[in-house]
Amino acid sequence: MKYTKMALFMGASLAAASCTGGGSDGGGGVASASTPQAISQKEKQQGAEAHPQILNEFGGSYESPQTAYVVRVGKNIAVQSGLGNAQSDFTVSFLNSPVNNAFAIPGGYIYITRQLAALCNSEAEMAGVLGHEVGHVAARHSEKRRKSSTLAGILGAVGTIGGALLGDNSGLAGILGAGLKQYSGTVAQLFTLRYSRKQEEEADDLGIRYLSKAGYDPTALSDMLSSLAMQTTVDAQAAGRDARSIPEWASTHPDPARRVVRAANNAKAFAANTVRKQDSHFAAIDGMLYGDDPKQGVIEGQNFLHPDLRLKFTVPNGYGMQNTNRSVNISGNGGQALFTTNAQAYTGDQSAYIASAFKEIAGDQQVSYSEIRKTTVNGLPVFYATATVPTQKGGSNDLTIFAYEFSKSQAFHFATLAPSGSSPFDAMYQSVRRLSASEAGEIKPRKLRIVTVGRNDTVTSLSNRMAYNNLQKERFMALNGMRSDAALTAGSKVKIVTY
Fold first, then answer.
1. pLDDT at 289 exceeding the cut of 80
2. Which residues sit opposite 240 in a β-bridge?
3. pTM metric for this prediction
């Protein structure tokens, strides 16, 4: 999370661009995946409008020695789709995000995060996951999704991206009842969340086809899906969640285990090819930033620490965090929350800040909240208020804005949503404190390193070099796509994470 004055929630332009993915130049037909229709002028315009907002959401472009490599691979796989005849028809962005994600939007815009590039164990795997996302665009899946969710309804739902995700005109109560995470800023979900199983399988098939056409091993996508499933399990364990839960990219691409097998079987329909380009991929990603960028804050277990803003807080056990460009998203079985700042700068007027925070969530709909209460937490002036909002199932939730004054010109707040009468976030509210200069100085970035396996190296010895204080072996094996019975070969290369 970076300090920003930009609104917490996306406006209507992105919702429109993402959900009207566009099948044609304004005609009614939707091109089939087998006979892809070229990028239309309308799609180019839509993509161009959404592109800068996506960059902002995901920490901006990651300008690094790896960028040119990722752009080249992305354009090469995208051109296999037939959406454009030249690589210049596509814009590939390498995102500075610690989230495992990749996606593509109409207009020839393709995205991959540095975290997902790091998880890939070869150039072919990275090309495969990008090909899958391009496949969604080639098959005009967003256009098909739009036809079951009218644009008027999407934009009518208080003007937030929650409306786009819900795909109905449920109003404030429905959106709040669905949970804060529905509209907390994960822009890529706008392009993938509502894809059906059939559409996901079609995108897998297209990704495999593009791999084969580009000269890669077509089974690479299956291996990438397997690594992603393992990493998802580790992420869940690290957050204290049920390892069977599926967050982030995997949550929008359901049933990863089934898809691994299906993709492997379908790859057999293409000419056998063993080209993976692991060595060149490893050489390209060696030394890349891994995990959180300290400039945006870091997640360490259940703690969030921001060295530049000099703050720290702790979330309850069993709750996971996702650090986006404008907020920290917190979710668990007992409730959901955001940690962020208002789009409008803090001027010392606590009442205005609380009103603005509620308005950012409710839009033009009125929310009645309690009298603003005041206290101190770890020496910080605190002010907070709660609104009770109905759920779609007849119950009610408490929506709380819990704000902290860090200075007369800077404030941050939690926006939390939990069943009325429950209090899952009380300890989290009390955990916020300032970091000392020495504490902030100890926060260091992690780096991805490629190492050669020595004669005496074991999974355990290499895992012990991982720059984490828990789940070292599990992290090492997921990062390298290794199963529990995998054997190391002296002279081979593996990935580790160091400071």
1. yes
2. none
3. 0.78
Q: Quote the longest CA-to-CA distance of the chain.
A: 69
CA atoms of 421 and 497, how far apart (whole Å) = 43
Q: Secondary structure of the chain: what % helix, strand, coil (to 5)?
A: 40, 20, 40
Q: Which residues are CB-neighbours of 63 under 8 A, at least 6 positions away?
A: none
Please compute the mean of the pLDDT values over residues 415-441 and round it to a whole number: 96
Size of the chain, expressed as the number of residues it contains? 499
Rg (CA), the chain: 23
- Mapped onto helix, strand or coil, the DSSP state of residue 145 is helix
**Where along the chain do the CATH 3.40.1000.10 domains lie?**
297-441
* Fold classification of 297-441 (topology level): Protein Transport Mog1p; Chain A (3.40.1000)
Which residues lie below 8 Å from residue 300, measured CB to CB, with a gap of 6+? none
Question: Which residues of the chain form CATH 3.10.350?
Answer: 446-498
Closest to 75 measured CA to CA, from 196, 190, 214: 214
User: How far, CA to CA in Å, does 310 sit from each of 56, 289, 305?
Assistant: 22, 21, 8
Q: Does residue 179 have a pLDDT over 80?
A: no
Pairing of strands 335-340, 328-332: antiparallel
**104 burial type by CB count under 10 A (0-12 exposed, 13-18 middle, 19+ buried):** buried
Assign 398 a pLDDT band (cuts: 50, 70, 90). Answer: very high
Q: Is the pLDDT of residue 164 over 50?
A: no
Spell 248-271 as b/e; 16+ CB within 10 A means b. bbbebbeebeebbebbbebbeeee
What pLDDT, on a 0 to 100 scale, did the predictor assign at position 268? 83
77, 127 contact by CB (below 8 A): yes
- With cut-offs at 50, 70 and 90, classify the pLDDT of residue 194: low
Q: Does the pLDDT value for residue 321 go beyond 50? A: yes
Intra-chain end-to-end CA distance of the chain, in Å: 21
243 pLDDT more than 60: no
| Torsion-angle region of 472 (φ positive above 0: left; ψ -120 to 50: alpha; else: beta) | alpha
Residue type at position 142: S
Of residues 88 and 363, more confidence is placed in 88
Average pLDDT value for residue range 6-10: 26
Phi-psi map region of 419: left, alpha, beta (phi>0 left; psi -120 to 50 alpha): beta
Confidence of residue 161 (pLDDT cuts 50, 70, 90): very low
H or E element at residue 444? none
At 244, list the tokens. Answer: 């069977």
Report the CATH fold assignment for 446-498.
Membrane-bound Lytic Murein Transglycosylase D; Chain A (3.10.350)
